[in-house]
Amino acid sequence: MKLFRLENVSLKWKLTFLSGSVIFVMYFLFTCLQYETVKQWLLSEEEKAMKKTIEEIETYYAEKRNISRKDIRDSEPLLEKLNEKYQTIRILDEKGNVIVSVSNHASVSLFPAERPKSLEIDYHSVNDERSIILRKPFRLSGMSGTIEMVRHLVKFQHMANMLFIMMTAIGVVAMAMSALIGMFIARHFAGRLQAVTKTMQSIKNKGFQQRIDVPPSNDEMSELMVMFNEMMDEIEHSFHQQKQFIEDASHELRTPIAILEGHLSLLRRWGKNNRDILEESLEAASQEVERLKKLVFELLDLSRAEAIAVPADLSPISPKEAAEQIVKNFRVLHPSFQFMIRDELGEKTLIRIAKHHLEQLLLILLDNAVKYSQQHKQITIRLRDEGKYVSISVIDKGIGIPRGELEKVFLRFYRVDKARSREKGGVGLGLAIAKEIVDKYSGQIAIESEVGSGTTVELFIPKAVI
After folding, report:
1. Alpha-carbon distance 346 to 361, whole Å?
2. CB contact at 8 A, 416 and 400
3. Mean pLDDT of 90-99
């Protein structure tokens, strides 16, 4: 026989049981408190009624100047008039002997008690029948004694029983209603979770196009659904980027491999006997191997840029010193170009980035500027203070980029002019690597360009707090 385990119960029934139990327990506690409060109030009313009757008896006796035992016996009609159902009134002398006693459906079997010094209230139970006993001494001209009143709590018990039955019945109804309310809450909550589950199952079977229909309510579940849809948008975007990346990488690899394959086939057929074909094929193969080598290295750089972490013990650096070092190297590599540094920073301005990462960023931007500025060979690096950031701009007067292409230049393998870029050895990963590095340091990268007038790429690197 399989044992019942809470782990095997669905979330809907767990929520039903939990919400129903909470509502029922709260109602049960409230009902118990209310029941006890009403009981105490009824007892208090019984005591007040008895005290009032005793006061009326005292007032009647006090009006007589000299009262005797005979006068007390003669007051029996009055006592019978004041006496209520299930109640007994007795007048005792100072020795505890009964002078007069009236009873209305109440049998009294009390042991003799000492004369009280003041008003006494006592509760007495015989065979599950409760009674209230009030004793109060009186002293009048002529004699003294005790007024004793006993009331069986028949009416009180009847009211309490009725109240208990009524509250029990209401409690049963409340339990049923709490179960229904709990089921409604569970269906409402679990139903929305089921919508998430169904959407995820649909995504698994049909792809990333499915989304959850978010209800108009503004609660935590709606926020979860919105977040899920946003997350799926990002995953879909990343998936398409990855797919595009694989397609672009395959395309970039396919071309040099096809060229290598063609020249090797040519060498196999004719190159052994024709030196010109041999030299041409070897030269073409070397160029394609160099292109493959550069592609692999840039892919490794991109992978490292994605995996970099900001060092915990990062030391602030001077952007001017890093720029001067990179420009010095480029002047040696490209002597025909004019490189200028326009420094608009203060001497003590430092930035929060690793030196080798900043150098890599400048290498990427200057390399692009050199490639596409063959006619106007003037490149400027401008350093400016921009509040919380330091702006490092690389400005060229090259061929420029069309406005419609500016948003795409940070995509992997994207090249504005694929043919000319391939001739210059570019594979379209430089700016993608630069963006990855800048993002790791919570910086920004922006680009402005105009066809025929040049391009400005601007880095915003956070300042170091000194």
Report:
1. 22
2. no
3. 84
Instruction: For 140-196, write each residue's pLDDT tens digit.
Output: 776 788 888 888 888 888 888 888 888 888 878 877 777 777 777 767 666 667 777
3-state secondary structure 188-235: HHHHHHHHHHHHHHHHHHHCCCCCCCCCCCCCHHHHHHHHHHHHHHHH
Report the alpha-carbon distance of residue 208 to residue 239 in Å, rounded: 9
CA 60 centroid distance within chain = 75
Q: Which of 67, 73, 68, 46 is nearest to 149 (CA)?
A: 46
pLDDT tens-digit map of 23-55: 778 878 888 888 888 888 888 888 888 889 888
Q: What does residue 433 show for φ and ψ, rounded to 5 degrees?
A: -65, -45
Residue carrying the six token digits 């990179």: 326
**Residue 119 CA neighbour count, 13 Å, CB half:** 11
Burial of residue 322 (CB within 10 Å: 0-12, 13-18, 19+) is buried
In the chain, what are the domains? Answer: 7-160 (3.30.450.20), 221-307 (1.10.287.130), 319-462 (3.30.565.10)
Distance (Å, rounded) from C-alpha 124 to C-alpha 178?
Answer: 41
**End-to-end Cα spacing for the chain:** 72
Residue 309 pLDDT exceeds 60? yes
> Checking phi first, is residue 332 left (phi over 0); if not, alpha (psi -120 to 50) or beta?
alpha
The pairing of strands 129-140 and 143-152 is antiparallel
The pLDDT of residue 1: 42
Assess contact for 11 and 193: CB atoms under 8 A.
yes
Model's pTM, two decimal places? 0.47
